Amino acid sequence: MSGLDALTARNGLLYGGDYNPEQWSPQVWREDIELMRAARVNLVTVGVFSWSLLEPSPGEYAWEWLDEVLDLLHGAGIAVDLATPTASAPPWLAALHPETSAVDARGVRMSVGSRNHWCPSAPAYREHAVRIASALAQRYADHPALALWHVGNEFGQTCWCDLCAAEFRTWLARRYGDVDALNEAWGTAFWSQRYRDWSEIVPPRAVPYLHNPAQSVDFQRFTSDQMRSVYRAQAEVLRAVGDTPVTTNFMGFFSGVDQHSWSDDLDVVADDHYGDPQDPTSPARSALTHDLTRGVGRGAPWLLMEQAAGGVNWRPHNVPKTTTQMWHDSLRAVAHGADGICYFQWRASSAGAESFHSALLPHAGPDTRLHRAVQAQGRGLEALRSVAGAPVRARVALVFDWPSLWAGSLPARPSDRLRVLDQLEAYHRPLWRAGIATDVVPPSADLTGYDLVVLPALPLVSDDDAAAIAAVVERGGALLVGPFSAVMDATTRVRTGPFPAPWTQVLGVAGQEWRPLPDDGAPVRGERYGDFRASVWSELVDARGAEVLATYGGGDLDGDPCVLRRADGDGAAWYVSAVVPDEILERIVLDCAADAGVTAPLEHVPDGVEVAVRGDVLLALNPTSRDVVLDLGAHADDVRDLLAGALVGRRPTLPAGGALALCGLRPADGTDQTDQTSGGDE
Ligand code: GAL
Predict the structure, then answer these.
(1) 324/410 same-domain check
(2) With a threshold of 0.90, does the pTM exceed it?
(3) 323 & 407 share domain
(4) Does the beta carbon of 306 lie inside 6 Å of ligand 1?
């Protein structure tokens, strides 16, 4: 179930973007709408940054322009995702209530003249934000164009002001009960940090040297909760006027909010994703991010709320997407569970800070290569109508959570080169390349439906979550754990004893030392994987019941285990104690998948080609400059390409730059996929 079901039942896949008519004349609106129809746009997000126009002075509203825009859109059959305009408060609010502007860690108050300058704890900001949200709700609840509510925009900022400090103390008091418990959790015996009273505690503001790590992670938890309460206050008034689903747009792995803790507050999960077109690793990273977004929505179809049609304006050097990349980026999102493909923005602005950002309708107008591609994309998405609502059925879970990202990104660790997101990408990439569906889920997710659980980088994990993870092997699943895992408990306190403390039994290993490697790495003799060099990181671990699959072959760790596997009944637990080369990791990950009985949809994926299965459709993208042949195997006699609307044989050609959406393939192992439910789908 997704909050998009009703909308996609009417429209198929959704297509559109941010629409900012307030920047244009009513005559331009009419041209916009005609062009939207021609491009088969069926959803636009309106009003994200229009607070100062909707409420020019406190309590005085100007709705007429928005009335007209919504009527025009509805007349053209275009649904509206209507935003509360609270991401950018009008200058009058800062003038009347200076405390509504956020303060940075050095004590500098943000000025008006940009956006997102608000403080989440200022009562006056909250009051005015809820008031405009409520006025919007009252006015448009029954407007026939309204399909979705969109609260604010890209929550994720941080404020260190006194109002936030007071709220932080209240939050801490709820979490810890009394100051002594906080002192214990934060380890304040260190550096004379012991607090006598709540009033002495402040956010991690500018300090001469390192912050207390527990304070830093708690402040990030608090900030995410504070943002969520701003979201909730607005969502509540929107929900009070009807059943229209409510969403907000996240930013992938951005560290500002812990999306998993927001899941229950969203009817639809939406993400903004701006992959870098000149980065060859961008498609893999995009797929990972989409798997994260689907996981936040517990498997439900999601909305790609924003992406760029060409270039962005905020990188120092903005290489644009090719039109092929534009199409493939959209298909990839669909393949990974998106039911809507939207952009920032419909028409390129000619004034303001984003005038040099691409758009679906460029400054040069509709008679352009880019806009023709936009129209072709509309036709392509229409051909994929039947995909809307279909699940991605994943048997593999990749475990990630924000507290681990925060704790893993703190300064003063053994190495800042062992990065949570790098590791996540490295372990996800082989699965993505093989076309094996993978859900990115938090450690607290129900893992019972997954055959393989992969933990590339989870330096912080609570005792309860650690126990649930160990249970994967006990019930016969496969578990793959990367280095420096479960090092800290939920308070960031380092666990004592051999590591990874909660999993020494299940993994059959006992770790003693973390040993970041010199720049040239260290040799490893692979009993199973041949010789290779580990880089960045190594660990001194003993095998205690695990079989050794690769051994350090030099230096201090000469002869010590590097990669280990412990069999346990039907289950298997793998431990990788180093950063290993991509091609070795690929073999390890695919061996784990084989241990778990997880197979790829195609036996062979040609180099550079990307495949992914959604529902009963296999999407194949060929970004290379050569035609390739896909071998669909024996289980493919009646396969149709939805994009071309034609039957293909068992060995269809996938042209250079092309894409196929193949429907009617039966899985190689003969299982009927429609009988399986995703582990993350409950
Ligand atoms: C997003 C934002 C949009 C626009 C876009 C430009 O982060 O939500 O309003 O600024 O970036 O890439």
Answers:
(1) no
(2) yes
(3) no
(4) yes
